[in-house]
Amino acid sequence: MQTLSKSSLTESAAQAIRSEITSGRWAIGAKLPNEASLSATLSVSRGTVREAVRVLVAQGFLETRQGSGTYVLSSTDTSKTFDMARRTSLRDQFEARCALDVESARLAALRHTPQVITDLRRLLAERGNYKGGDRQEFIARDLAFHKAVIAASGNRALMEIYDFFSATISETIEATISAEVPEPDMQAHADIIDAIETGNPDAASAAVRRFMAPVFSALDTLLQS
Amino acid sequence: MQTLSKSSLTESAAQAIRSEITSGRWAIGAKLPNEASLSATLSVSRGTVREAVRVLVAQGFLETRQGSGTYVLSSTDTSKTFDMARRTSLRDQFEARCALDVESARLAALRHTPQVITDLRRLLAERGNYKGGDRQEFIARDLAFHKAVIAASGNRALMEIYDFFSATISETIEATISAEVPEPDMQAHADIIDAIETGNPDAASAAVRRFMAPVFSALDTLLQS
DNA sequence: TGACAAAAGTCATCAGATGACTTGATGAAA
DNA sequence: TTTCATCAAGTCATCTGATGACTTTTGTCA
Fold first, then answer.
1. Does B167 touch chain A if contact means CB atoms closer than 8 Å?
2. Which superkingdom (chains A, B) (predicted)?
3. Range name among A73-82, B18-27, B62-71, B102-111 with the lowest pLDDT average
């Protein structure tokens, strides 16, 4: 029994169960002891066991089937990965997001359809340029355009990861330095669409890179100060 | 956004609280009503409320402070993102991983040091070519090389995401089609190191792309059959 | 053997109670 | 006035016992 410096009984119980799984002692598909047994083994009440199991179910480790039992679903801790990715520096996160943008534009150029191009132009027109007013809403419109570019790649994995970054980045950026980062204008955005339309992957990724460069340098000077 | 057709009371309660948060009705930092009030509002027992709160705490939405109350931490569900990324198709996952490889090589070329190049060459030598034997172990050595390339980018966010994909991809690939996907040879790997050493980002990313192309076509034909 | 009913096992939920912790108010001492 | 100790109320943490709902197994009967 490892003692965590500061953890509730429920967290300790969850950790104990988790380690049984990650260590492989409880294999995937295995059935856990029932709640009464677990509560006896872990020396906590059944209510606490249930809360611990709830957490592990939410994390994808376990699955409960009423009337049948609780079973091991997976032994990989995906929530840990996400947690660590969130703890990386803002610049790394932004750079990673930029990498996704670049490669998505490349794929979009390879796979674009007239419909996609039309949609992108419409989203860009809706976005417009920022001329004061509700900045929050403008950022949302801007994000919608960028997410559409990612969607144009046709790759759902890229979309999911991008969602993760756009959430964390906008949370951080908007609160701290939003007003000081230069927003690329309409032409820079239009260049990306044009490059995708030509079907040239190198041109598309280059357009995104040109687009991102000034934002990066602004971010770098801000983070240094 | 999938709504579960059949959800337990706890899940319903968690969803109800979650929507209060994501909709913004309960702002970040706000204090939730106490457990008794929540149980009355949601028409469930306090135990159910506690299990729901546990889940939301595990997902990063809430924070409980004993003796004080329960507070809103964040309004974005970040833990779900990676979970959804894991559910995307194998091809999308592989393509996303490839995108990370390409952009990491580009960054590595911009930031490489002699030490990094030396390490990469050593890892490649240790990897060797596959000549039968323990395939599992060879894949591990191969993965070590690729992760070193990502590490050479100096971007921790990319490393974390790559870790996520390498885990899921090797889980899937090794079990299904490992023997039928062509493994790029030593020269293809060496090309990547050389390109990084020259400091030319375009050459580095192009080398990775050339490296990945045959794997992709093999994967595509396999997935079609 | 096969189908059906009964029973046992298990999770889901509820209700009540006690302990631990935080916060704010109160009042005494410096 | 300021500082500190003490107290009381509010809240989450945990435990206990009980009931309902669902699944699996077992036993029975045709």
1. yes
2. Bacteria
3. A73-82
pLDDT tens per residue across span B133-166? 666 777 778 888 888 999 999 998 898 888 877 7
Residues 6+ apart with CB under 8 A from B182: B214, B215, B218
- B154 CB and strand D closer than 7 A: no
Per residue in A105-159, pLDDT (tens digit) is: 999 999 989 999 999 999 999 887 766 666 677 777 888 888 899 999 999 889 8
* B171 touches A: beta carbon within 8 Å: yes
Per-residue confidence (pLDDT) for residue B223, from 0 to 100:
63
Give the Å distances, CA to CA, from B193 to B100, B102, B118: 16, 13, 9
Question: What average pLDDT score do residues A41-46 get?
Answer: 88
Dig out the tokens for B89 from the structure. 């198709």
Residues 6+ apart with CB under 8 A from B106: B153, B201, B202, B204, B205
Model confidence, pTM: 0.67
**Which residue is closest to D17 in terms of CA–C1' distance?**
A46
CA distance B177 to B190: 25
Q: Distance between CA A16 and CA A42 in Å, rounded?
A: 8
Sorted by sequence, the CB contacts under 8 Å of residue A28 that are 6+ apart come out as A72, A73, A74, A75
Structure tokens at B149: 């390339």
Query: What is the residue-averaged pLDDT of chain A?
Result: 81
Specify the 3-state DSSP secondary structure of B65.
strand
Contact A30, A73 (CB under 8 A): no
- With a threshold of 0.90, tell me whether the complex ipTM lies above it: no
| Domains of chain A, start order | 9-76 (1.10.10.10), 88-224 (1.20.120.530)
Pick the residue from chain B with its C-alpha nearest to A86: B157
Q: Is B9 on the interface with A (CB under 8 A)?
A: no
Please answer yes or no on whether A99 and B103 come within 8 Å at the CB atom.
yes
Q: What is the pLDDT of residue B4?
A: 35
Residue A154 in contact with residue A105, Cβ under 8 Å? no
